[in-house]
Amino acid sequence: RNYYGGNWASFSFSGLLSWIKENQQKTDLADECEDWKKLILEGEEAIPLSRKDKTIQHVEDFCFGDQDSAEGVEEAGALPKLPVLGASGTKEVSPGSEKECPAVESPCPELESQEPEQGTGVEPAGATEGNGAGTTSVSESSSGESALELGQTEAAPSETPAKEPKKITYSQIVREGRRFNIDLVSKLLFSRGLLIDLLIKSNVSRYAEFKNATRILAFREGKVEQVPCSRADVFNSRQLTMVEKRMLMKFLTFCLDYEQHPEEYQDHESSTFAQFLQTRKLTPSLQHFILHSIAMVSETESRTLEGLQATKKFLQCLGRYGNTPFLFPLYGQGEIPQCFCRLCAVFGGIYCLRHPVRCLVVDKASGRCKAIVDHFGQRISAKYFIVEDSYLSESTCTNVCYRYGTTGQICLCLQNSADIIAKLHSCASQVSILTVPPVELGKPAVCVIELCSSTMTCMKDTYLVHLTCPSTQTAREDLEPVVQKLFNVNAEKGKKTESEELAKPRVLWAVYFNMRDSSGVEKNSYSGLPPNVYVCSGPDSALGNDCAVKQAEAIFKEMFPTEEFCPPPPNPEDIIYDEDEIEPEESGLSNSAETKPEPSTEESSDGGTAAVTKEE
């Protein structure tokens, strides 16, 4: 590929349009030159790799409302015609004279005002206090627990006269395309999850910054409500009666140490978590909050223990970095793979883009993979090979049964009118997560993540909204009912007559696609792979990143059973350099301000430091 991270990548707007076009092409790439086959020697055989990524299906993109002319816009160039989806269906819209897309509101206009934004920068251990406005410093205390230091946050907007809503045009979105960092996969980081712990332990956290998720939302009886999470939230909530507050606190306290009280749940282990909640004498609203917004598990499939474990994890993550359990990386999830690449590069690791691999070369005598052959006709030898699932050919995956997830991404424009500001105040600083229950029997719940411009994922005065769920049909068929409940997708201005439609935020642009989930596939399901070839999956369907961390550690331990996984890097002053290994620094070619030791196979993940600046 010509971008980092595979299906974990983040794109600018023009980059995403290119990705969409690439994945809408149905034809397989023809192998124009087969000279590489001459490099397979006697006693060897080749395992061809797939030329076409088939993990993405049913890609559909739409511009809602009038699509203005974007000819000559430098960021994306000439744009194709996009279908416009209205109440009457889909139709083609040709680029015409520039027209303004209608302004829209935040998805949750009925909520009370929230805390101002808290940008979270995860700094190296021992970072000094006072990192500047809107940042958070994380360091390790003597007890091993992370200490949090909050900087000053942005002030709430001052009271000003009502202004006309800002108008956003399609060409403006294209022109400001570099302001967008749109993830292919929608995830949040649990503050006590495996990935955050690994980032701190390995000191990869120095390359990333994070922002707190500011609110957990629930969708019930056609309304969006804020879910009280912490003890203070529960007792300050106006949505709950005093009796409900006591019920909720009692149940959450039980969930924190449910293992100590097996008699409370043993008789319900075979029941669903939803059925177990009904036995706890909780009101319907409390059951809804716990099931969909705290445990975030399936109403029909998740068993009691799964729900209790999820609730406990949610509660344990509260308060570490903010009032919710979640963090979001600035510039998108695609930053995380690149952060690990940066530390790898300090010790000589190389990440090659636009470098296709034709096949794996297997020694017939030993049955082990000994090399790869690339499209330049080079043989690259190694002891171990890690292959992402999407590169394996259909003949290798004949016995594999895949699951699919559904993803929709929506670009919103913020309504800047006085009545919205009065209700939300600093609404532009919100990072929200909302679970929408199944719209009908047999349909999955939909997870909605709303990102504001301060996450560096979208341009000012817009929101980026991700919707995900397990697939039952195409992405559009799965998600469109939820989109119509939450947003105004009427393309024609003449249809803006109902007050409830006017209250909904208006969608400017959207893309739907299905992504394959291979996280549950065992290695023995793949046919004919040598023992030193390890398969990793793409993104899984869970909200967090624990699956990827466990998978990476398991592969590492198979290759290097005596080595520590992602050990803490040494302090720069503790690194001893051999004079023979120090090479003169070539002007303009140095990857780091420091001289680096020559890496070995065992040392490639050891520590070190580097000065890394954020690329625009």
From TrEMBL:
Spell out the Low complexity composition-biased ranges.
125-151
Which key words are in the record?
A: Cytoplasm, GTPase activation, Transferase
What organism is recorded for this protein?
Answer: Mionectes macconnelli
Annotated signal sequence is: none
- Biased composition of type Acidic residues is found at 575-586
Tell me the PANTHER family matching this sequence: CHM, RAB ESCORT PROTEIN 1, RAB GDP-DISSOCIATION INHIBITOR
Q: Where in the cell is it found?
A: Cytoplasm, Cytosol
Biological process, per Gene Ontology? intracellular protein transport; small GTPase-mediated signal transduction; vesicle-mediated transport
Q: Keyword Magnesium: yes or no?
A: no
Gene Ontology MF term list: GDP-dissociation inhibitor activity; GTPase activator activity; transferase activity
- Put simply, this protein is called RAE2 geranylgeranyltransferase
Using the UniProt record, give the first listed, main subcellular location. cytoplasm
Specify whether Cytoplasm is a keyword of the entry. Answer: yes
**What family does this chain come from, according to its entry?**
Belongs to the Rab GDI family.
Q: Which SUPFAM superfamilies match?
A: FAD-linked reductases, C-terminal domain, FAD/NAD(P)-binding domain
Record-level GO cellular component terms? cytosol; nucleus; Rab-protein geranylgeranyltransferase complex
Q: What residue spans carry the region label Disordered?
A: 85-165, 562-616
Q: Which domain of life is it from?
A: Eukaryota
Q: Which residues form the RAE1/2 domain?
A: 429-541
